[in-house]
User: Which sequence fits this backbone?
């Protein structure tokens, strides 16, 4: 990942990734030592060491979020600010238990998709939206959050029911909100489809967002 560069550039150098710990090396990728050398980060031997030495914390297991339960135990009890990368949890039960740990420990934390902060959403009228048609790349388990969060930003979180209408690896969901409002989100795998959406209003207006901004710079 490129978090060291993201953070340094976004804060004009005020914050930097200084320490790291990894349970395993990335399969078919850089070893932990190679990654640390590449970004000038000091490798530590335990999560506790990273927590003790750091001002704020990032927990990363984006492709294997089932590990977040174990990885978050010490950080969410630390009282320090914590960011947990998406997907936060694979079940409501685990998510609620992690939130409870943080609340009991007074630890401020959040987990989000970067597309929640896409600049294209800033100028979108959020009143009287009746339908959103959202699309994006990737597999559902890992990348659904990148469509769900922009939908929630625009339509709220008061969803009533969800229905799967996709086929095979091309997952598609209909989300019904209060007052009969709906959103459709579809995944097209790695076929060159960008994140984008069409927003429809009760007065007949249509807002087209052909592509979300480059929220993941290299």
Assistant:
């Amino acid at each position: 990942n490129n978090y060291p560069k993201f953070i340094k550039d976004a804060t004009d150098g005020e914050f930097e990734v200084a320490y790291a710990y990894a349970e395993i090396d990335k399969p078919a990728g850089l070893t932990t030592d190679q990654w640390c050398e590449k970004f000038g980060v000091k490798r530590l031997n335990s999560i506790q060491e990273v927590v003790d030495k750091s001002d704020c914390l990032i927990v990363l297991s984006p492709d294997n979020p089932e590990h977040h339960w174990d990885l978050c135990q010490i950080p969410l009890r630390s009282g320090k600010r914590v960011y947990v990368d998406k997907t936060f949890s694979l079940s409501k039960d685990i998510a609620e238990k992690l939130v409870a740990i943080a609340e009991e420990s007074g630890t401020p934390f959040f987990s989000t998709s970067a597309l929640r902060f896409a600049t294209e959403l800033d100028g979108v009228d959020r009143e009287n939206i009746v339908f959103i048609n959202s699309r994006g790349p990737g597999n559902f388990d890992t990348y659904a959050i990148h469509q769900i969060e922009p939908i929630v930003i625009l339509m709220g979180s008061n969803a009533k029911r969800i229905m799967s209408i996709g086929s095979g690896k091309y997952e598609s969901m209909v989300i019904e909100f209060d007052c009969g409002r709906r959103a459709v989100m579809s995944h097209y795998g790695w076929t060159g489809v960008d994140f984008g959406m069409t927003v429809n209003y009760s007065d007949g207006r249509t807002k087209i967002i052909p592509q979300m901004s480059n929220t993941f710079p290299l």
The chain has a mean pLDDT of 93. The chain has two domains: 3-110, 115-209.
